[in-house]
Write the structure tokens for this entry.
Amino acid sequence: MTLLSPASDSAGLRDYAFEWALVDVETSGLVPRRDRVLSVAVLTLGPDGEQTGEFSTLLDPGCDPGPVHVHGLTPERLRGAPAFEQVADRIGALLRDRVFVAHNAQFDYDFLAHEFARAGLVLPVARRLCTLTLNRRIDPPTDGLTLGTLAAHYGVEQTQAHDALDDARVLSGVLRGSLRQAALLDLPLPLVACPPRQDPRFAPKPPKAPCAYRNPGRAAPGGPLVQGMKIAVTGSTRTPRAELVAGAAAAGLNVVSSVSRHTSALVTNDGASGSAKARRARAEGVPLFDEDTFLRLLDDVRPGTPHEEGAAVPAGASGVPAPRVPQEPAAGCPAPADPPGTAELPATEPTAARTRARAPGGPLKGRRVLALGGTHAAAVAVRARIVELGAAAAINLSASVTDVVVLDGGRGDRRMARIASLELPVHEADWLTDPVGAGQPGTPGRADAVRVLPRGGVVDLPRTTGPGAAHWTVTATWAQQASSEIDVVAFIVDEDEQVPYDDDFVFYGAPENPAGTVRLLSDGPTEQTVSMDLATLPPGARKIVIAAAIDGALTFGDIGAVHISSGPGTGAAPLVQATLDAATTERSMLLAEVYRRGPLWRLRAVGQGYDHGLDALARAYGVDVAD
């Protein structure tokens, strides 16, 4: 089966012609630096979509195979299989000079990168394509974006899910169907340049045991230390630093790598030190202890207050930590609701703290409307009106777009030719005054299941049971442009709205925290996903703050709207979405917060912009950023 068919635009598909290597792995777990590959399959396709090669094998990982109920690979089945290093050269030959393709590609890519590194080799991949990311851009009318769901949509037979070879064969059919649909929509492929992820600088540090106690505040002059106090150390010490840190941790203290207003004390043998930690401590009034005093106090640390599972977030914890300079919304931009409405997702247990959510509805219910052209303020106002009428505001052309609204200059948009060929209804802005009866209906049932949140809106996450029930994702998407890059980051913060350790700042250079509970997935130039396992977060983690920052001279007024969607797992249908477009001159923006409220987790669509960049935002959350 080739990419081309009588109904295909063969000229357009030539832009999607590459040498492909389609990959699927089955693994003993979900953390590449810790778990192993049990089975691997690689199919190669030519630029015309015809298969040119195939290889698959079971592998002996030399460890427990993990969830046998998922992959069916028992120790007995794996006994006698080759070790990865025995087949690495053959796999490398199939991958070399081809685009690496997988569904949720960063997962497969990271696992193979670590396996190649263990074998003393470099994974020979320069670019990858994620079919999950591609189909998020296509947005087909399906109830989710799992490989099996997309296989059914594209008419591909699946005989044995979680079998590497069968999944790779299914992937080849999904890729062909996805490329045809991308050509129909004139979508650029979300190809990702692959850094050497097996390089040690990308490897997360071993997990640090979280402090079990709440921070009691500052150490009083002459008073005792209390379990949970945040202690920083700067300068040289007679006691080896590792020994000093281990002793403090064993006593129940929380040794942190940076100083903020929440630091309890700074240990230094030079009270006049000019280090960044010492300067910040003096500015914040944090007490300074010399090494001898600290060691003496360490002998009599008083009992602290343990973290309580499911404790309520302190009042005001939904905002940004100090230093904070809130920016006023841009002219014509909607301000956050006061108080924000709290929606209820299906299967969420009732809570007395919930305010009544506005019932979804309106004359455009179930539709996705794309606005083209206009000034930033005009486009913001139109998207707000679209949401008010019950529709979702699109920022990219996709298969789910049902209507297009054209503002000043919009008819010159390069997408108009493709919109005309798709015969989508095109309206002037005044159509939004009374749109009843115009255009085509939305996809029945699909859009209705997604809760559209306004800026500042809050929703309780469902309380479900079973494997992976607490696995949640937030995906940020924006319109493609080449002059600047956008970095999505996550801060895992405690009750003080501070990152307990620098390692709990998740960003491109450190794409997961040490425990692997929060990960950054980057499989396209116009989207990034933060994946969270809420069940395995330490009790002291009260909130995950998800933000975006522009790396370059542009502002969010130049970039335009950022669309966020959230759901349970990477391939599941989103349950929540919001379009955040109030920022104009700002270079960083808080996108969403996932936080504890009693026994529940909640998600807030924030949309708060700041003129400063990522470094200042990180310092506000207590992350030590080098100048």
